[in-house]
Write a structure and sequence with these properties.
Shape: elongated
Largest sheet: none
Number of domains: 1
Oligomer: single chain
Structural class: mainly alpha
Helix content: 55-70%
């Protein structure tokens, strides 16, 4: 019975660690915007995020069209799909109706 408890605890810990690293992050999205998108867009992350409200960003992302929308806002941008979730979180966090202002 002791081995079963150890195995269950290890499995729970493993799942907790893996799930937390798989989540997107607004701070990481802000850094990615500054590093990968700001030059192509030609304006700050605040202007980018404020192109839509939180509901609009959520709808765009839910429809799987976030990459296309970002590339439409920033002509010439080729957004890597692995950055989409973090940039989305950044955009949602600092959307026009959020009241938050990023520092980039």
């Amino acid at each position: 019975m002791n081995n079963v408890m150890k195995l269950a605890t290890a499995a729970l810990l493993g799942v907790a660690v893996l799930s937390s690293t798989a989540m997107a992050d607004a701070k990481k999205g802000q850094k990615l915007y500054m590093k990968k998108m700001k030059a192509a867009c030609g304006f700050s992350g605040a202007k980018f995020a404020q192109k839509h409200t939180q509901d609009e960003w959520e709808e765009i992302h839910g429809a799987g069209k976030f990459k296309e929308e970002a590339e439409k806002i920033c002509p010439g941008l080729k957004l890597d799909p692995k950055y989409v979730d973090d940039i989305y979180d950044f955009s949602y966090e600092f959307a026009s109706d959020s009241g938050n202002v990023p520092s980039c």
